[in-house]
Amino acid sequence: MIRVVLTVLVAVALLAASMPALEDARAATTDERLGTESERVERAIGGLAAGSMSVSDPSLAARTTVTIHAPSGVTAARIDRLALVEPERSENASGAALRYRIAGGHDRTVPIAPGATAATVEVVDGPIELRTRGESRLELRLVDDGGPTVEVSRVG
């Protein structure tokens, strides 16, 4: 009987000791997955800007949609907030960024910089709140707003 009790106590102690490492792994997995999502949006913006011509009439503008999947499940940390924002001027970045908060943590930002495209990126009616579980659809529209501009808005 004493062996069983000792075995259970050791198992509980080992589990308690491993929980911080498990939470760190979940946060790292969430960071990686959201980085991948930002790269998908970057590629969609770059493809739209490179393969289309901007026009001044938004109804005639080239457009595409992209879906952002919020990480979930046992291997991902719980996300309290997920939004598409325009970077603050102090960040010396142009375009957009995914800003998120993992449960109990601070805000983190993953920039969406479409690289060598000549188009600027504008978040319409931003920041755009995205679902913290499941998926959110964004519409990208290439307009001429004093130069080629990719306008990003939420459609689902």
Index terms:
DUF7311 domain-containing protein, four-stranded mixed β-sheet, alpha+beta, 156 residues
Question: SSE layout and pairings?
Answer:
Elements: H1 2-51, E1 62-70, E2 79-85, E3 96-102, E4 107-112, E5 120-123, E6 128-129, E7 134-144, E8 148-154
Parallel strand pairs: 5-8
Antiparallel strand pairs: 1-7, 2-3, 2-6, 3-4, 7-8
Domain DUF7311: 1-152
InterPro entries: DUF7311 (IPR055735)
Protein name: DUF7311 domain-containing protein
Characterise the protein shown here:
This protein is an alpha+beta fold and 156 residues long. The protein has one domain (2-154). The protein has one helix at residues 2-51; strands at residues 62-70, 79-85, 96-102, 107-112, 120-123, 128-129, 134-144, 148-154. A 4-stranded mixed sheet has the order 1-7-8-5, covered by helices on one side. A 4-stranded antiparallel sheet has the order 4-3-2-6, covered by helices on one side. The model has no long low-confidence stretch (mean pLDDT 84).
Q: Structural class of the helix and strand makeup?
A: alpha+beta
- The ordered H/E elements are HEEEEEEEE
* Major β-sheet annotation: 4 strands, mixed
Radius of gyration: 21 Å
Distance between the termini: 58 Å
- Which percent range describes the beta-strand content? 25-35%
Q: Uncertain segments of ≥5 residues (pLDDT<50)?
A: none
Q: Quick one: how many beta strands? A: 8
Short description:
By secondary structure, the chain is α+β, with helices and mostly antiparallel strands. Helix content is 32%, strand content 34%.
